Amino acid sequence: MEGGSFIRDHVLSWPNVAAMVLVYIVTISIYRLTLHPLARIPGPKLAAITRYYEVYYDVLRNGQYTFKIAEMHKKYGPIIRISPHELHVIDPAFFEKLYRQDGRWDKYDWSYRAFSAPGSAICSGPHDIHKARRAALNPFFSKARVGTQQEMMDRSIIILRERLSEFAATGGTVDLGAATSACTRDIACEFLMDKAYENLRKEDFSVQITNMLQQGGSVWRITKHVPWFGPLMRSISPSIMTKIADDGTTAFLSYVQESEQDTKNLLKDAASSSNPSTSRTIVHEIYNSKLPTPEKQYKRVADEVFTITGAGFETTASALRLIIYHIYANPPILAKLREELAPLAASSSAADGLPAYPDLKLRSLEQSQYLTCIIMEGMRLSPALGSRMARIAPDRDIFYGDDNVRIPAGTPVGMTTILMHTDKSIYPDPLSFVPERWMHLEKRRQLEKTYAPFSKGTRNCLGMQYAPFPSLFFLLFSHHSILFSG
Ligand code: HEM
Q1: What tens digit of pLDDT does each residue of 241-262 get?
Q2: Interatomic CA distance for residues 69 and 416, integer angstroms
Q3: What keyword terms does UniProt attach to this protein (predicted)?
Q4: What interface predicted TM-score (ipTM) does this complex get?
Q5: How far apart are CA 305 and CA 309, in angstroms?
Q6: In 10 A of CB 359, how many CB atoms?
Q7: Is 461 marked as a binding-site residue?
Q8: Whose CA is nearest to atom 20 of ligand 1?
């Protein structure tokens, strides 16, 4: 007893605890600045000491760390230390070294754990776990299989056309952002889950779901630094959440609940299916794969569905929005595009006065040179992730630049696509929308070495064959005239 009260009254007194915390902070700061394996790499001292440096820019200043990193490179050079544990590089020549198909590449658990979906391929840290999970998904996303889905995509695109025509007929204003988002969601859900969620048919295109998805980045940024925040949000029972949340969150939660129930039903269906050779949904594909049984349990599969649908929704929609805006804001680009598409429109029958889009072959759209340049330029300015994508070589040191700066095995090191895509030494006047950059084929081949809207290497985008761009553009640009307001 006496010993206990001595410890309480003397050792654990407030001044002593404060002094111990201070000694800990000073010791760890000195270690990180002097003896730590990354101590030689330049960067702000505060960033090398603590992650709260990043918290300030990303949480308190709402996602500004990417731009702060760009500033830091101007001061400290092409390779910098952006946190006690992580490096960042801004040199395009390094891209091919970091995002590769050969070798073992882990993801940085710290940043992907914040998506609160540890069972998914996209959030799998270790190379081998990711490889097995991705192998199970690959057949579903093959070009051949995606090709068979054209009719399904056409259906959604026709609904979009009908809805836009209704607005056009009344001279009304349409929230084109919400409409394109609804279209990409409907297509992705039907492709992945074989179910029509019909966001396109909703009066307001389920705009609340779009709004919620766009806020996902803030939750992710907070959860990186406050690990319990995301899981806490996901653990609150939907019945409680709907009582305290606003309309947008409620709409989003009911979508999540519906998707979770669908995943359960599809798992049951896959388990009782007599023909495991055909996988009509992503859930069937996983269930019929060679993955071991624990990988086919509901929780793991639900993480996969949640992240793959998430990966397919706003990425595609935001690229579409950006491209649509630039085309209508630049009449000469629109005129040139229409000129290119005109023969295709003329060759299709027009029963209702609109171009009969479904008669068109996707291939003729893909071969439209100017349309391709427009899509490439849009994807340059709209890569899916606005932040760095760190990779880790777990089993070997890697080296940067002519000076062979050593990056020790196990160190997370990232590059940021949007910074590379707006590097003015590669793209003169980088923030302008100039499809002509891509017209010259030899120059395009050169640019493509460091052009990576879908990332590159072992963790590149699985859905890249699938983004329904050409068809949508034909519809939007060959027929409609859109004026932006507000
Ligand atoms: C314009 C549209 C899209 C863009 C720009 C895009 C971009 C990306 C990028 C940059 C990554 C790498 C992420 C990382 O390193 O963490 C990625 C991964 C992924 N994307 Fe996409 N994506 C698009 C559309 C889609 C669609 C439509 C789907 C599916 C329906 C999809 C499914 C995935 C999946 C499953 C991964 C994870 C791959 C893995 O970790 O092995 N994406 N995407």
Answers
A1: 767 777 767 777 777 888 899 9
A2: 10
A3: Heme, Iron, Membrane, Metal-binding, Monooxygenase, Oxidoreductase, Transmembrane, Transmembrane helix
A4: 0.98
A5: 6
A6: 12
A7: yes
A8: 461
